[in-house]
């Protein structure tokens, strides 16, 4: 969002990061406040920063390995109030709080949504949906990342009632080995596109819209669950990052421990 006061215009960025370190799960929420009207000749100015760990509010079918969470038809639920956290952060920075905070995630430098998840699938039948991540929006569909397996793997991504299913499917050397799903939204030749990858291999390029709305107030989101569809995850989740502005392309990724032998 943007806010202007006494010639200072600022924008709040946030992202969610999940990993497991020495069998301890960690969901971190990062918020940064940057001045957006910095003079051309002056430095970019960050006005405030906060990173905190969110405690799970519910867990089901969960076990932890050294660097992964194993979900056995299970999920982890988290709650956050980004509106409240942003207001507290700008207040601590000495900035006045506006009556309303913006709820729209807009592209920055041509970049917008970014999500990445390192996962491995467990046995779930011949045709199975594997829900990886859900974050609510004003639209019922919300943000969804999932994978399906029916002899071959296929990524599914949805946001703002836009459902993107890459036409290219993929296979792995083993069904249940670790791999990475990644979606990034960028602007090329004036067109907003979603690029979907497995590891570093592109699966599809899909046209999308540049802005996405997120409801203000408290939010409940899930690792390994699509609550409206009653589906949970089977397998392991090693790490996940969701950045609705792709505002930290060069930021350090969650620490990765050598994968266990399977």
Secondary-structure element order, N to C: EEEEEEHEEEEEEEEEEEEE
What does the average pLDDT come to?
A: 83
Give the overall shape, derived from the CA principal axes. globular
Figure out the total of helices. Answer: 1
Instruction: Report the sheet with the most strands, covering strand number, pairing sense and barrel closure.
Output: 17 strands, antiparallel
Q: Work out the radius of gyration.
A: 19 Å
Specify the helix fraction band: under 10%
Structural class label: mainly beta
Beta-sheet strand percentage? over 45%
How many runs of DSSP E, i.e. beta strands? Answer: 19
The low-confidence runs, each spanning 5 or more residues with pLDDT under 50, are 249-262
Intertermini distance: 45 Å
Q: Care to describe what's here?
A:
The protein is mainly β. It has one helix and 19 strands. The strands form two sheets. It has a 17-stranded antiparallel sheet that branches. Strands 7-16 form a two-stranded antiparallel sheet. A hairpin with a 4-residue loop joins β5 (58-64) and β6 (69-81). The radius of gyration is 19 Å and the shape is globular. The termini are far apart. Mean pLDDT is 83; it is low at 249-262.
What secondary-structure arrangement, pairings included, does this model have?
Blueprint: E1 2-5, E2 8-21, E3 24-35, E4 46-54, E5 58-64, E6 69-81, H1 82-92, E7 104-105, E8 111-121, E9 128-135, E10 143-149, E11 153-159, E12 162-164, E13 179-188, E14 191-198, E15 201-207, E16 212-213, E17 218-223, E18 225-226, E19 231-243
Antiparallel strand pairs: 1-2, 2-3, 2-19, 3-4, 5-6, 6-17, 6-19, 7-16, 8-13, 8-19, 9-10, 9-17, 10-11, 11-12, 13-14, 14-15, 18-19
């Amino acid at each position: 969002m943007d806010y202007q006061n006494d010639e200072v215009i600022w924008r709040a960025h946030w992202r969610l990061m999940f990993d497991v370190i020495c069998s301890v799960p960690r969901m971190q929420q990062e918020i940064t406040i940057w001045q957006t009207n910095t003079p051309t000749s002056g430095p970019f100015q960050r006005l405030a920063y906060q990173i905190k760990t969110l405690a799970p509010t519910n867990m089901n079918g969960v076990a932890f390995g050294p660097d992964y969470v194993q979900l056995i038809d299970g999920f982890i639920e988290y709650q956050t109030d980004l509106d409240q956290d942003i207001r507290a952060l700008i207040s601590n920075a000495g900035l006045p709080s506006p009556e309303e905070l913006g709820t729209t995630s807009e592209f920055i430098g041509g970049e917008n949504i970014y999500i990445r998840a390192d996962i491995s699938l467990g046995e779930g039948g011949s045709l199975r949906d594997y829900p990886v991540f859900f974050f609510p929006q004003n639209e019922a569909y919300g943000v969804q990342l999932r994978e399906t397996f029916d002899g071959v793997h296929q990524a599914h991504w949805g946001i703002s009632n836009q459902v993107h299913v890459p036409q290219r499917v993929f296979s792995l050397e083993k069904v249940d080995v670790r791999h990475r799903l990644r979606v990034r939204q960028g602007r090329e030749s004036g067109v907003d596109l979603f690029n979907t990858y497995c590891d570093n291999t592109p699966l599809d390029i899909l046209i999308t819209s540049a802005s996405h709305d997120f409801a203000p107030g408290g939010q409940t989101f899930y690792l390994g669950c699509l609550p409206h569809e009653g589906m949970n995850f089977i397998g392991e989740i090693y790490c996940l990052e969701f950045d609705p502005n792709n505002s930290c392309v060069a930021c350090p990724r969650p620490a990765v421990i050598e994968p266990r032998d399977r």
